[in-house]
Design a protein that fits this description.
This protein is α/β, with parallel strands linked by helices. It is built from 33 helices and 23 strands. It is globular.
Length: 765
């Protein structure tokens, strides 16, 4: 039997529990008809002890689970947060004002999802309303009447009594005095002066930052959407959509009915939105107006009501007519001539949901095979922790290949002890340089998609479900690039010996984005340009990438995927340069570990020689070394390895690389790092004679200028001090600062502990 949860949002502003009575009483009264777990979200003042007790008394004798969340955002944000904290296959969400009105309500909502794989969502209420038209028309009426731009019109006064009484009382009260002064209302409404005046007013209030900014996020009428007072769907489908809803009511409405909201995304998946009546019938989109449901007749077929359903039942006849017209227009014979005169006819149109991104998804019934490849030479201790994050994904179609690069303690016996045929070990009996090791490792991956990471790295619990969703529904991208968690093991970071975890989104394309998106070609080119300019604007960590196997095979050079001293830097930029479809998933899907056995440890602790030995790379044997040897300066080997790697990238990309390697910038970095040898000391170090002899005239001038600024700064010149700071900043490679959020300090000693905390929602990611 498929598992199901009913999630009820109990939110209170002041601690009163009166708004929860209708739901709790109706939940007791009507049988759900399907086994489920009731989950109550305590939000806002509902977390107060007295309010919690009141809810408990209302639900006395009923088994339920509680989840507490903070009071930021509204109902949709609470639903999305909760969906990540539970593990049921199906979930039904109900808001604070939901009121059940029939038996077997849950079974009726779930039945279409169970019986038809093409159904993506069901709901108890639906509408064709467009907020753009509804708000636009009401705004126009208020603008006309509050400004006394038209004489009193009994039809307008009757149709918009509530709004005009609140916003244009003088127009309503002084109607006789206005009568006969202006031409007929119809002539005025059709005049260019009124049309142009409202157009200017509308632009002013709907522009970005205006009072109604954002209405362009809604389709014009008809805008079919299921309402969110009681809706059900597969939890993995909802989670896989990657929604990042803002903390305003408007953001929630966009989720419910916006052009890129839930209805459109469901349609883009090739799935259907189905309205379910109290009688158990399932209504397709074009059948909704005949369902006798929300804002239709006596609403007798509404299975779960809410405050809007109830307000319609108690509204005046005029308000009921207006609300029905806004929701259904001509589809339910509610398209008053008055609406057409006002410029919002509510006539019939296209019901199929469309969007500029409608080709974003493609549905496949085949579960992609995902290969996880882990090269290691550190022995079993770390790599078995990494494997732990793979085998506990809750997804079946995967393989994990551990490439043992001649570890002193062979890995194979430890892999065999797992007794899982999906995990295998391949061993080299000689120690290979890092690039050769990675090539051998990645060639072992046989999946549709391949991820490679180091032995101190791992996956988050959402990795494989998200990759599955993207690869099945996003038209098979060349690769997926995600955010990362970075886990500094204890004893690694000098600035925090206890170890810590951060959410690291290192990429300019993460800024302002919360959803899964396709990276445009110009942005991909910008990413590579920054690398060539030694101004990195995205991370090259392989943990952030999941590659299509076909794409990897297409970009091989001399039969190999990886080249250069820094194989990850090489592939990251070659992939950005040659990828035709790149999918960005901002949510962290992998964990970049930094242990005492990692190359990162040597970088952060200034152990350059140890780092070079770790990579086992001799730069002088690189095939491009002798072509650029005259440009190489002594000093930091990291910069030189990066420099050679950029030439490998330029050669592989050819005409696709619009920016040449910035030789001058590389040499400037070497000079500045030679001058400022101590990171926390502004005192310049003298250049070694052999280093000085290699400098060109412009570089000698740079040394002289920096020395002069340093001298003046040491003497207390404030302008020189600021200039010296700028020069020091210019000695780094960061082109765009990453988005960093610290999640924890000191709680985790090993990777599996962190993995478990994420899976159990003890660490919010």
């Amino acid at each position: 039997m498929k598992s199901a949860a009913v999630v009820y949002l109990a939110r209170s502003e002041d601690g009163s529990a009166k708004d929860f009575v209708k739901f709790t009483q109706s939940y007791r009264k009507f049988q759900a008809g399907y086994p489920h777990e009731l989950i109550v979200i305590h939000k806002g003042a509902a977390t107060k002890p007295g309010t919690r007790l009141a809810i408990a008394l209302m639900l006395a004798g009923i088994a339920y689970k509680t989840i507490d969340i903070d009071d930021s955002g509204f109902d949709i944000q609470a639903y999305l947060t909760t969906s990540l904290k539970i593990d049921h296959e199906y979930v039904c969400f109900m808001n604070t004002y939901s009121e059940i009105r029939t038996d077997d309500w849950l079974l009726k909502l779930l039945q279409p999802l169970f019986t038809s794989p093409s159904v993506g969502i069901t709901s108890a209420t639906a509408s064709y309303e467009s907020l753009y038209d509804s708000i636009g028309m009401i705004s126009k009426v208020i603008w006309l009447c509050s400004g006394k731009l038209i004489p009193y019109d009994p039809q307008i006064a009757a149709a918009f009594t509530s709004q005009l009484t609140a916003h244009a009382p003088e127009w309503m009260a002084s109607a006789p005095a206005l009568a006969g002064i202006y031409p007929s209302v119809n002539e005025l409404l059709a005049s260019a002066g009124i049309a142009d005046g409202f157009a200017r007013h509308w632009r002013a209030i709907t522009r970005h930052g205006g009072g109604l900014g954002g209405l362009d996020h809604f389709n014009r009428f008809p805008n079919p959407h299921l309402r969110s007072n009681a809706f059900a769907m597969r939890r993995d489908v909802l989670n896989g959509m990657g929604f990042d809803v803002g903390n305003t009511k408007f953001d929630c409405v966009r989720f419910e009915s916006g052009v890129d909201g839930l209805p459109t995304r469901i349609a883009e998946l090739g799935l259907r939105s189905v309205l379910v009546g109290a009688d158990g019938r399932a209504f397709e989109t074009e059948q909704w107006p005949g369902a006798n449901g929300f804002r239709l007749g006596n609403q007798s077929n509404v299975m779960v009501a809410d405050n809007q359903v109830r307000s319609f039942e108690t509204a005046s006849e005029a308000d009921r007519t207006q609300l029905a017209a806004l929701s259904w227009g001509a589809y339910a014979n509610f398209s008053p001539p008055l609406f057409s005169r006002l410029g919002f006819p509510m006539t019939k149109g296209r019901l199929a949901l469309t969007h500029a991104k409608r080709d974003r998804y493609i549905v496949s019934d085949r579960l992609p095979k995902i290969s996880i490849v882990i090269p290691t030479r550190s022995g079993p201790e770390l790599v078995m922790d990494a494997v732990h994050t793979v085998i506990n994904q809750g997804y079946e179609n995967w393989e994990c290949v551990v490439f043992d690069n001649n570890s002193d303690d062979p890995i194979a016996p430890h892999i065999a002890a797992l007794n899982d045929r999906r995990v295998r070990c391949v061993r080299s009996n000689v120690t290979l340089p890092v690039t050769d090791s990675w090539n051998r490792a990645i060639d072992e991956g046989t999946g549709d998609y391949v991820t490679l990471f180091g032995d101190d790295d791992g996956l988050t619990p959402d990795f494989m479900p998200t990759i599955e969703f993207i690869t099945r529904f996003h038209k098979g991208p060349d690769f997926i690039y995600s955010g990362l968690l970075q886990f500094f093991h204890p004893g690694v970071a000098p600035w925090e010996p206890s170890g810590y975890v951060i959410d690291l989104r290192s990429g300019f394309f993460f800024e302002g984005e919360g959803d899964i998106v396709t990276l445009d070609p110009a942005s991909a080119q910008f990413a590579v340009t920054g690398s060539m300019e030694f101004k990195r604007n995205f991370t090259f960590n392989m943990q952030a990438f999941c590659f299509s196997k076909n794409f990897l095979d297409s970009i091989r050079k001399d039969g190999k995927v990886f080249h250069s001293p820094y194989p990850d830097y090489y592939l990251a930029n070659v992939a950005m340069g040659l990828g035709k479809k790149i999918t960005i998933a901002p949510k962290p899907l992998a964990i970049a570990g930094v242990s005492r056995k990692s190359f990162g440890f040597t970088l952060f602790n200034k152990l350059e020689e140890k780092g070079n030995a770790f990579l086992a790379t001799d730069l002088s044997t690189d095939p491009l070394y002798h072509k650029i040897v005259n440009d190489i300066l002594p000093g930091h080997s990291y910069n030189t390895s990066y420099f050679i790697t950029m030439y490998h990238i330029s050669e592989r990309l050819g005409s696709f690389c619009e920016t040449p390697v910035n030789v001058g910038r590389y040499r400037q970095l070497q000079i500045l790092q030679a001058l400022f040898r101590e990171p926390d000391n502004d005192q310049l170090e003298p250049l070694a004679p052999e280093f000085h002899a290699l400098l060109r005239d412009s570089e000698l001038q740079l040394v002289k200028q920096v020395s002069d600024v340093a001298r003046r700064a040491a003497a207390g010149d404030t302008d020189a001090i600021d200039e010296l700071k700028r020069i020091r900043r210019d000695g780094g490679m960061s082109g765009r600062d990453p988005l960093v959020k610290q999640l924890d300090v000191g709680s985790f000693a090993h990777l599996p502990e962190l993995f478990a905390a994420i899976r159990e929602k003890r660490l919010a990611v």
